[in-house]
Amino acid sequence: MTDGRDDSSSRLARIERLLEDSGRDVVPAWRRVTRGETRWAVSAVILVAFALQMTLPHRLAFQPYWLLPALELALMVGLFVANPRRIEPGTRWLRWPSLVLTGVISLANSWSAARLVVGLVRGTEGLDAGPLLLTGGAIWLTNVIVFALWYWEWDRGGPMARVMGHHQYADFLFVQMQSPETAPPDWEPVFLDYLYLSFTNSTAFSPTDVMPLSRWAKMLMMGQSSVSVSIVVLVVARAVNILR
């Protein structure tokens, strides 16, 4: 009788362990505590934005033209030195310098875009099609990077909050969240996913396969589409007019 009870108890214990394991497997990586993503991708893209801003005509830049790019570079180097590898709980204090860096890049590019649009409307910009297309392309691509950084910084509270699994509900719905069988069990969005989101929103002027869920995400995507279509329409129209 004792052996039978022991056998039943062991089977019950195995069933409980299996249920616990299956319950853990059901929870997707983007909803639980995970290892932080690396900083290499976001650092490389910020360097691209810095390089693009340095190629713009000085008359379109915030004056003095070197001020904001120099501040961007100083902030990026400081962030990279403070945490060159992964976003981890111990680096939570770096969130504010990271937000300031994104804000500075946004200010510099917004200033250049506004100056370009005003110049095109007044007829003082775009005397040569080639340089105009290059300038418009640089501002447009920097705009893609800027919004990718904002999406990355704010989705579910930012990269640090995502590492800790603090937010249950997502601001952006990726395909892998809807269909977890299409991705590895440890999949969660990283910066390159937000860069893809920003690029497709700037080219299609609307959501593609990533859906905004929260109101702020919808408003931010609407703002990006508005800026993107303004730059593309005005620059291309002016360039075509010059070539004719």
Walkthrough of the structure:
The longest helix has 29 residues, at 215-243. The chain has nine helices and two strands; from the N terminus they run ααααααβααβα. α2 packs antiparallel against α3 (67-82), α3 packs antiparallel against α4 and α8 (191-204) packs across α9 (215-243). The protein has a two-stranded antiparallel sheet with strand order 1-2. With 244 residues, the chain is mainly alpha-helical. The mean pLDDT is 84. The radius of gyration is 24 Å and the shape is elongated.
How are the SSEs placed, and which strands pair?
Blueprint: H1 2-26, H2 40-54, H3 67-82, H4 95-122, H5 129-154, H6 159-164, E1 172-173, H7 175-178, H8 191-204, E2 211-212, H9 215-243
Antiparallel strand pairs: 1-2
Helix pairs in contact: 2-3, 2-5, 3-4, 4-5, 4-9, 5-8, 5-9, 8-9
What's the average pLDDT?
Answer: 84
Which strand order do you get reading across the main beta sheet?
A: 1-2
Strand percentage, roughly? Answer: under 5%
Instruction: Tell me the helix content.
Output: 55-70%
Distance between the termini: 98 Å
For the biggest sheet, the summary is: 2 strands, antiparallel
Rg result: 24 Å
Low-confidence stretches: none
Structural class from helices and strands?
mainly alpha
